[in-house]
Amino acid sequence: MAAGKTVKKIEKTMEAETASLLKDIILMEMRKLAETTGVEIVLFVGVDGRNFSSIIPPTLSPLQFHMFNLLKQNIPSICSQLKNENLIESIQSYENGTIYITGVGRNLFLASVKTGNVSFNESVEISKKLASGAIVLEYLTSQKPTDDKSLEKLPEDVRTEIKQLTRQLFVERFEQTRQYKKNMEILAYIKEKLATVVGVGAVNEIVELTFNEMGTSAPYMNDSLWLAFVERLIKEHVKRLSGEIVAEECYKTWVPEIEKKLKMFV
Fold first, then answer.
1. Distance between CA 174 and CA 142 in Å, rounded?
2. d(CA 168, CA 147)
3. CB half-sphere exposure, 235, CA atoms < 13 A
4. How far is CA 46 from CA 5, 85, 104, 149, in A?
5. Which of 118, 167, 195, 204 is the most buried (most CB within 10 A)?
């Protein structure tokens, strides 16, 4: 590499395209809000009163229990204000703690609780962080794209947070996606076919070499890449190890079989 040149590292991210992934990424943001603000209870609620997600300590202290019950009693009133008046924010201070209500668009809101004494300045900072988190959650629940162009009009801190969340979602959940499971099944199938003509011992070396030649790896493949992979595997490596006749026969039979298997996942 030439002096002075740097290679930009591209971090893989993942869209919350399913209800399960959307729930995961929302909960990730709620946990971060709880960590950065110090609030102990966070509910993500619809204006109809439905609780979509929540962070509640497994064991509530007497103060937390009291404030949680107070919050639950106030939920119908909060929903009414959000529905009829489009409530954006409310801070309710009590002797035993503070309740923060933060609107998330027109139909959702965050209800957060922090027990004990909270100073005015601390409360202002908590409110700001919750408001920023609400913008993040509103964008995520809209399921809009999270590429740079789509995010460019959002505040910088919100853009950064969404990018971090989609990166975290990729790291924690990618192996549970349909794409990943499909690719692992296709890889296993190709390895089985390959072992019949080059021997089991050579399979992993050939597969790894072919991936390196293509500059990719199994988890991130798509249908067209798999077909290109099989073609290269046969014409470059099966031919070299097992001869042209075997390679030609493999190409005639394997490619249609792989195409059929790929279509089974549509």
1. 21
2. 15
3. 8
4. 50, 15, 9, 29
5. 118
- From first to last of the 266 residues of the chain, give the pLDDT tens digit: 344 443 344 467 767 667 788 888 999 999 999 999 999 999 999 988 889 999 999 999 999 999 999 999 989 888 887 777 777 888 999 989 999 999 998 889 999 999 999 898 999 999 999 999 999 999 999 888 888 888 888 889 999 999 999 888 888 888 888 889 999 999 999 999 999 999 898 999 999 999 999 999 999 999 999 999 999 999 999 999 999 999 999 999 999 999 999 988 75
User: Measured in Å, how far apart are the chain's first and last C-alpha atoms?
Assistant: 41
Gyration radius (Cα) of the chain, Å: 26
Q: Is 26 exposed, middle or buried (CB count within 10 Å of its CB: 0-12, 13-18, 19+)?
A: buried
- Residue count (the chain): 266
**Strands across the sheet with 41-46, in order?**
51-55, 41-46, 108-115, 97-104, 89-94
